[in-house]
């Protein structure tokens, strides 16, 4: 696949090209499935916009909204290097805004009957004004409940317990993943369960293990994470409820610091392990 930056006034966009030499029939089916999902979702300011798609000879093209600030995980990790005195240094309010934007985008998916299945900071893209938008619908399904029967690998560290053990995916399993993403935001891109081998995660989670509270985040934020990580999916909040809670935090961001942006917290607490980033 090739990505080309283009200018399609009044919008800038990426043109994704699937060439004739390396595309299998399965690639084409996956491409069309993702295209149909994005078409069914429709426009929302917190979802990456589909501008169009076409086929010319044996080449498939899709034009997507161009988002100049890249993915959220990379953005957060770069922010670790910033001095607190930098003009563009991240604030607690901005971190809450990221979470709120994602919750709004995911609520739109949920009301459209779409399960994302791969919600993580690496799949959130940042537009102008650092507006966060949900992207990468390669694993998404337009169903209320999806039971995976294929052997396609899904990154384990963001999965709910029922998804790891039973391969069952629902909007509430996306809520679990949102809790992991909220932890990524609070830790400026830390690797979830950095000290636990992937093959041990299932046993640990079923025994009740949950990630500890990041030292820089408030009890309110950590409580929200824990609610997203309830073993019983019906006890997890809906995205609509998450929007309500995060909106209140966003309204109170002047008076309250929900996620302290302090460099020493990240050096001493949240570990980045690239070898475990996407598995």
UniProtKB/TrEMBL annotation:
Q: Which GO terms describe its biological process?
A: cell surface receptor protein tyrosine kinase signaling pathway
Its keywords, alphabetically, are:
ATP-binding, Kinase, Magnesium, Metal-binding, Nucleotide-binding, Transferase, Tyrosine-protein kinase
| Sequence ranges assigned to domain Protein kinase in this UniProt record | 1-259
Query: Does this UniProt record's set of keywords contain Plastid?
Result: no
| GO molecular function annotations of the record | ATP binding; metal ion binding; transmembrane receptor protein tyrosine kinase activity
List the residues marked with site Important for interaction with phosphotyrosine-binding proteins.
Answer: 258
Please tell me whether the keyword Isomerase is annotated for this protein. Answer: no
* Top-level taxon of origin: Eukaryota
Q: Which InterPro entries does UniProt cross-reference here? A: Kinase-like_dom_sf, Prot_kinase_dom, RTK, Ser-Thr/Tyr_kinase_cat_dom, Tyr_kinase_AS, Tyr_kinase_cat_dom
CDD domains with a match to the protein in the record: PTKc (cd00192)
Binding locations of Mg(2+): 123, 136
List, from the UniProt record, the residues annotated as the active site of this protein: 118 (proton acceptor)
**Residues binding ATP, per UniProt:** 122
Q: What is this protein called?
A: Protein kinase domain-containing protein
Organism of origin is: Patiria miniata
């Amino acid at each position: 696949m090739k990505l080309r930056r283009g200018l399609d006034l009044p919008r800038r966009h990426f043109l994704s090209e699937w060439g004739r030499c390396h595309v299998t029939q399965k690639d084409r089916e996956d491409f069309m499935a993702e295209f149909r999902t994005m078409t069914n979702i429709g426009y929302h300011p917190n979802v990456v916009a589909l501008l169009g798609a076409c086929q010319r000879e044996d080449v498939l093209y899709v034009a997507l909204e161009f988002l100049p600030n890249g993915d959220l995980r990379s953005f957060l990790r770069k922010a670790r290097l910033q001095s607190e005195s930098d003009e563009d240094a991240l604030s607690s309010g901005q971190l809450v805004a990221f979470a709120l934007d994602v919750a709004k985008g995911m609520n739109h998916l949920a009301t459209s009957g779409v399960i994302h299945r791969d919600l993580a900071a690496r799949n959130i893209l940042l537009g102008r004004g650092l507006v966060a938008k949900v992207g990468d619908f390669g694993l998404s399904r337009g169903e209320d409940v999806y039971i995976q029967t294929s052997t396609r690998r899904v990154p384990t560290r963001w999965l709910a317990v029922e998804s790891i053990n039973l391969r069952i995916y629902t909007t509430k399993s996306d809520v679990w993943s949102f809790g992991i993403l909220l932890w990524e935001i609070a830790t400026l891109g830390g690797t979830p369960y950095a000290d636990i081998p992937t093959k041990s995660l299932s046993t640990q989670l079923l025994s009740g293990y949950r990630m500890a509270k990041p030292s820089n985040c408030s009890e309110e934020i950590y409580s929200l994470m824990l609610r997203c990580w309830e073993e019983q999916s019906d006890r997890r909040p809906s995205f609509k409820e998450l929007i309500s809670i995060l909106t209140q935090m966003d309204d109170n961001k002047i008076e309250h610091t929900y996620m302290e942006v302090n460099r020493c917290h990240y050096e001493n607490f949240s570990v980045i392990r690239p070898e475990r980033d996407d598995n």
